[in-house]
Amino acid sequence: MHSTAQWRKNASSMTENAKASSRPTVADSTLSAAIEVDRLVKVYKQTRAVDGISFSLPRGSITGLLGGNGAGKTTTIAMIMGLVLPTSGRVRVLGHRMPEESAEVLGRMNFESPYVDMPMRLTVRQNLTIFGKLYAVKHLPDRIAKLAAELDLNDFIDRANGKLSAGQKTRVALAKALINEPELLLLDEPTASLDPDTADWVRAHLERYRKDNNATILLASHNMLEVERLCDRVIIMKRGRVEDDDTPDAIMARYNRTTLEEVFLDVARGRVNDAKEGQDEQLSS
Fold this sequence. Notes:
- The chain is an alpha/beta fold.
- It has 10 helices and 10 strands.
- β7 (184-188), α6 (196-213) and β8 form a beta-alpha-beta unit.
């Protein structure tokens, strides 16, 4: 566990980075893409976790990043965040090179995963306060109150994080991800452990947030219905490479399938050629 001194040192460093990156810079005005990935490669010993992928995400878009375990999704997101150094290739986020210029954009982006726990002994309010200070959020108590109301946190806002249910932790994680009103939001299974009604409400909230703030969202999920509903575009990865990249409707049509889940299974199980041949036969008949 981190000591109090370590927490304070880390908090001070991140706060300075957040303050430095809270304002757009001149570099952003010349670029339309929120994320640019160019021939990105990451090799761990003999394993090519990411193998020469390229894509560009326009601002204000929601993109689904799909793939089975070991496809390279998590490594790709980590390189976009500047947490992992690429073996080769280039990443730009909001017009800045990552990780070299990460201090310029860290305060304008955020990440959410229900699988990354916040400190268990701290209450929800205390956790949100700490993360808000790390991002140098102005009028922080008001921001926390607004998120608590929007995400229905008030019943357990002063409860320790370790005493929350899985679904409650997921909502708190989303509140943490929105604390700094990010321009770029990276999400990993944002509705995991939520009941269908709450999950639907969270998806609607994300859609509103994107629309109201012209935010860009990159979403990694195994919930295909969620991806179909939320995403303008889908990038399918397999063994570190981009297998397909298009709108959900176009991908389903290309594979001659009616759902993204069927497409996902075709790609994961190597049935891609059979699916496309079925489409070709339909077109020729």
